[in-house]
Specification:
By secondary structure, this protein is α/β, with parallel strands linked by helices. The chain contains 12 helices and 19 strands.
Length: 393
């Protein structure tokens, strides 16, 4: 692709996904612990040759969209129409001011689009002007009549399954969509069909069998199982931390500010619960400990909030292509009483970690008035973390 050519994306996410069953629009459900639309958008947002991603939404979904794609770069969403075709036109019109040379049109219900497929789409549009990813048909296809009887068996060697992202010269596909709207044609099922109707030659390029569209409840079940099978390296790490009491009027415990008659003596905010969790995660990764990543000798961590340490540890898991399966922390202290704050702490850990609260446990015990915790000289915490990683040599 010539360096002067600029590529934008229309991400179509205005559908209701009724065939996917209960649970709301399928693009906002999670698969593998990640919203479908986040997976679909992330590959484009991070691709070096894409300068703009234009989401097209149902106007009722704005809050769900914002929550689902936090951290990803995209243009301000535009509202879709009654059909996919109308939604794509709305997305194309929203991109006019950016003057892209090439546009990729992708369904948000295809969350497994790869960087390689995006690159092939850009190259194909640059070379041909209109192209779609296609996958060969492996099963024998039958054409049946209204009575259900077989009328024809087409040559499967010539049949292809069309996928997205479909790629085009921007001005060409925009005009084709505008013309179809002017002529009252709203029955096209994909953008290639509009291009064909407008007289364009549509080329094909290599698709990806993993780039499947989520349509039915069975699709979600199958893909959840596939993703789980890819994360077969199950690891558990443990952590321990302790801090003495000093002067102060509160303690930071598991990310929650707890009023108390004392404070922690610590280089950072002294959050023993989060520190223990960080060590547990790093242990599961075989990636050192909290002190090696955030040395107390470094002045920049003086008084630092420990939520950033936990976010960092979670990012280390994500960078390895992994997921957090469970986080557990046990506080060992006489006071303050943890029980009344247990669910607040669970919710805060879940928020920092980006996992569901059902995967977070906070427990507490005393040392029966024995030792430094029994004398209320400080607090200790133990933690465990279970993570899943892809198998690697």
């Amino acid at each position: 692709m010539a360096k002067s050519e600029r590529t934008a994306v229309v991400l179509v996410a205005a559908g209701r996904g009724l065939r996917a069953g209960a649970g709301g629009p399928k693009q906002y459900r999670t698969i593998g612990g990640v919203p479908v639309i986040y997976r679909a958008m992330e590959a484009f947002s991070r691709h070096p040759d894409v300068f703009a991603v234009q989401p097209v939404l149902n106007p009722d979904d704005s809050a769900m969209f914002t929550a689902a794609v936090t951290g990803l770069k995209h243009e301000a969403p535009t509202h879709g129409g009654a059909t996919r075709q109308a939604s794509v036109l709305a997305g194309l019109e929203a991109l006019v001011k950016h003057k892209p040379d090439i546009v990729l049109i992708h369904d948000a219900a295809r969350p497994f689009v790869s960087q390689g497929l995006i690159s092939r789409a850009i190259e194909a549009a640059s070379r041909t002007g209109a192209a779609i990813p296609a996958v060969a048909v492996t099963d024998t296809i039958k054409v049946t009549g209204e009575n259900g009887n077989v009328e024809d068996t087409p040559d499967r060697a010539r049949l292809r399954i069309a996928q997205t992202p479909q790629s085009f010269r921007f001005d060409v596909i925009l005009e084709a969509h505008r013309r179809a709207a002017r002529d009252g044609r709203s029955d096209f099922t994909d953008d290639a069909a509009i291009a064909e109707w407008a007289g364009l030659t549509v080329a094909t390029f290599e698709g990806d069998v993993a780039n499947m569209k989520l349509t039915t409840p069975e699709d979600f079940v199958r893909e959840e199982a596939r993703l789980a099978s890819l994360l077969g390296d199950i690891r558990t790490g443990t952590g321990y931390d302790v801090h003495a009491f000093g002067e102060g009027d509160h303690l930071m415990i598991c990310g929650v500010r707890v009023p108390h008659t004392k404070g922690f003596l610590a280089h950072s905010d002294g959050d023993v619960g989060l520190h223990a969790l960080v060590d547990a995660i790093l242990g599961a990764l075989a990636d050192g400990d909290i002190g090696s990543h955030f040395p107390p000798s470094d002045a920049k961590w003086k008084g630092a909030s420990s939520d950033q340490f936990l976010k960092y540890a979670i990012e280390r898991v994500t960078q390895r292509g992994g997921r957090v399966a469970n986080l557990e922390v046990t506080m060992i202290c006489e006071r303050p009483k943890i029980g009344p704050l247990r669910d607040t702490m669970r919710a805060r850990i879940a928020e920092i970690s980006g996992v569901d609260i059902s995967r977070v446990a906070v427990k507490a015990t005393t040392s029966e008035r024995l030792g430094f915790t029994g004398r209320e000289e400080g607090i200790a915490a133990t933690a465990s973390a279970t993570i899943r990683l892809p198998w690697s040599v």
